[in-house]
Amino acid sequence: MKKGVMRPGHVQIRVLDMDAAVKHYTDLLGLIETDRDDQGRVYLKAWTEVDKFSVVLREADEPGCDFMAFKVVDEPFLQQLEKDLVEHGVDIENIPEGELKDCGRRVRFKAPSGHTFELYADKQYTGKWGITEVNPEAWPRNLDGMKVVRFDHCLMYGPELAATYDLFVNVLGFYLAEQVLDGEGTRIAQFLSLSTKAHDIAFIHHEEMGKFHHASFYLETWEDVLRAADLISMTDTSIDIGPTRHGLTHGKTIYFFDPSGNRNEVFCGGDYNYPDHKPVTWQAEQLGKAIFYHDRVLNERFLTVLT
């Protein structure tokens, strides 16, 4: 297993109305706006994150996800991954330093599922927001909304799960933490991790390429998830499902939509993993319980509403 791709770094989300989107992601989720650029993009971060941004909003004619990026340990490892991707038959595009504000060069590629991903090594280090790195307080006093702790993962819908697995595991160094198998033993959902987290990226089989299911943000406690549910109702935000528990990962969760129709998740808890753990397997006939552990019934909207 390669050691060098560290964590999810950022996600660029397309929104229809920038003012409404910024209000949603700052006032409701509690992200902090850190910058804007001459393209009109808005940069946001959660308060515990040490780099300048983890979410970029871009105004567009349709919602969805432009790309998700992962941070690697250093420039030499990024150069090695470039070579590995090319040897694997993946077309790469070099995005120059500064195209995203205060971010180093990025290596962009498309997975067999149709989703665009990036790798980068450098981004401006700003430290945690609102607290010092010497004798820090427990949390900043002036956080808004849900007070999300970090950008955690994305769930993508698309085809070619086996080829996508091969790319992420054998080239990028992820490992399989959890999966759903159909009656023939074919993997129809895969949850891939770089760390001890339940997952850093997940894919579910879908015939249409490159579809975005949700971006997820971490909260500390079940009480925080319940408070998030209250805020969703207090702001008349469109809700998808929850609060509830997943069978997959066992995280406690709630799903809702931004004003453009992009799905968000906030969650707490969930399983931990190490690379020597065997993958947890769910059978497709138990998919209702796997996704919504309490209801044990699939929410059709959860499976079909994508951007």
Question: How many structural domains?
Answer: 2
Number of DSSP helical runs: 6
Structural category is alpha/beta
- Can you name the CATH architecture of the largest domain? Roll
Strand percentage lies at 35-45%
Taking the sheet with the most strands, its summary is: 9 strands, mixed
Cα radius of gyration in angstroms: 18 Å
- Reading off the top of the CATH hierarchy, the class of the largest domain is best stated as Alpha Beta
Query: Order of strands across the widest beta sheet?
Result: 14-15-16-13-9-12-11-10-17
Give the integer mean of the pLDDT values.
91
Strands, total number: 17
Provide structural commentary:
This protein is of the alpha/beta class and 307 residues long. The chain has 2 domains: 5-120, Roll (2,3-Dihydroxybiphenyl 1,2-Dioxygenase, domain 1), CATH 3.10.180; 150-304, 2,3-Dihydroxybiphenyl 1,2-Dioxygenase, domain 1. Helices cover 19% and strands 36% of the residues. The protein is built from 6 helices and 17 strands. The strands form 2 sheets. Strands 14-15-16-13-9-12-11-10-17 form a 9-stranded mixed β-sheet. An 8-stranded mixed β-sheet has the order 2-3-4-1-5-8-7-6, with helices on one face. β11 and β12 (201-205) form a beta hairpin. This is Metapyrocatechase.
Summarize the model shown.
The chain has 307 residues and is α/β, with parallel strands linked by helices. The chain contains six helices and 17 strands. It is 19% helix and 36% strand.
